[in-house]
Amino acid sequence: GLPARVRIHEVGARDGLQNEQTAVPTEVKAEFIRRLAAAGLRTVEATSFVHPKWVPQLADAEQLYPQLADLAAAGVHLPVLVPNERGLDRALALGADRIAVFGSATETFAARNLNRTVAESLAMFEPVVARAREGGAHVRGYLSMCFGDPWEGPVPVAQVVGVARALLDLGCDELSLGDTIGTATPGHVRSLLSALNGAGVSTDRIGVHFHDTYGQALANTLAALEHGVATVDASAGGLGGCPYAKSATGNLATEDLVWMLDGLGIETGVDLAALTATSVWMAERLGRPSPSRTVRALSHK
Ligand code: HMG
Ligand code: MG
Q1: Looking at ligand 1, which atom is closest to the CA of residue 244?
Q2: Start and end of every Pyruvate carboxyltransferase domain (predicted)?
Q3: pLDDT grade, residue 206 (50/70/90)?
């Protein structure tokens, strides 16, 4: 049956902004994160400690993260992406206690996103996960291209399960299944979740991360919820896209997700009106309207 409560892992400030061409001022990012937390989101991914040339938009991580200290002290989780030990050092120096490594189920995307083979990227993550956990940090393992890859086409379930297992074996606390380019459909989601369970991965360690390129994100989410998944990634206003994945557009919009969950009587702790106001505010900063259907419906009354 459906979970009684869903933990929303908000990625708007990271996945949502990483692809923006014009630099968003650090103060605007901090205010965005502050407003997201005020709307009731308890996990707000803040930024990435990656190479600044690879993702220029997030080059201000050192300036941004310390501005969020009061939120962290108030118990808001502020995970950050870390690809390697250099990134981990930068994150730990600022007191980060929740990190995420990000692997790929396909070789092409591993090469384009991390400049590594899949095996080399797992080797790169190994000391990151070990050191983070020694220090008591929580570690999420993202896995991209779990369904389709723009260069390789549909990705075999067994291939995804293999890399997923490897990430968990490194010591990741949770796994987030990325549909990076939004080509998944609900039957495919069910197959992958069942195969993961069959490989000994329990559903309570799995989160889902859908991009809405083909309008399937909400249907895929419902399929995952019916399977027992209770952690769902979403991006306020539907912002987003990956700079290294051809044809990746925005994530599932957090407002669209909350509208559905509210209707199903599933608790999220999120105030939809406050969240929508935040996305309208952010859309004004970015100079274009939010692509979220729910944001549009609720803000054009
Ligand atoms: P590389 O060029 O192979 O790096 O990039 P390297 O290890 O050869 O190091 C080269 C130089 O970069 C060195 O400096 C390092 O110190 C420096 P030098 O000695 O030459 O002066 N360097 C760094 N500097 C700052 N911070 C660091 C860092 N690492 C190395 N962390 C690397 C390899 C992994 C660094 C690069 O490929 C990278 O930064 N990639 C990040 C790409 C990215 O952020 N993509 C978006 C996130 S993933 C995503 O969006 C998908 C997701 O949403 C799920 C889904 O939708 O599927 C999560
Ligand atoms: Mg993503």
Answers
A1: 45
A2: 6-276
A3: very high
How many CB atoms are located within 10 Å of the residue 210 CB?
27
242 annotated active-site: yes
Query: Which atom from ligand 1 is nearest to the alpha carbon of 104?
Result: 57
Q: How far apart are CA 164 and CA 146, in angstroms?
A: 9
Q: What is the pLDDT of residue 1?
A: 86
In sequence order, what are the beta bridge partners of 77? 43
Encoded amino acid at 264, one letter: L
Ligand nearest to the CA of 234: 2
Per residue, what are the HEC states of 230-294? Answer: CEEEEEHHHCCCCCCCCCCCCECEHHHHHHHHHHHCCECCCCHHHHHHHHHHHHHHHCCCCCCHH
As a whole number of angstroms, the distance between CA 230 and CA 148 comes to 23
Q: How far is the CA of 3 from the centre of ligand 2 (A)?
A: 23
185-202 pLDDT, tens digit each: 999 999 999 999 999 999
| Closest-lying ligand 1 atom to the alpha carbon of residue 90 | 26
Which residue in the list 50, 139, 242, 261 is annotated as catalytic? 242
Tokens read off for 112: 């384009």
ipTM of the complex: 0.98
Q: Output the pTM of the full model.
A: 0.97
In tens, the pLDDT along 82-99 reads 999 999 999 999 999 999
Residue 175 neighbours by CB under 8 Å, 6+ apart: 140, 141, 143, 164, 167, 168, 201, 205, 206, 207
Tokens for 143? 């896995």
Sign of CA dihedral 284, 294, 43, 176: negative
What ligand has the least distance to the C-alpha of 244? 1
User: Using CA atoms, how far apart are residues 11 and 243, in angstroms rounded to an integer?
Assistant: 15
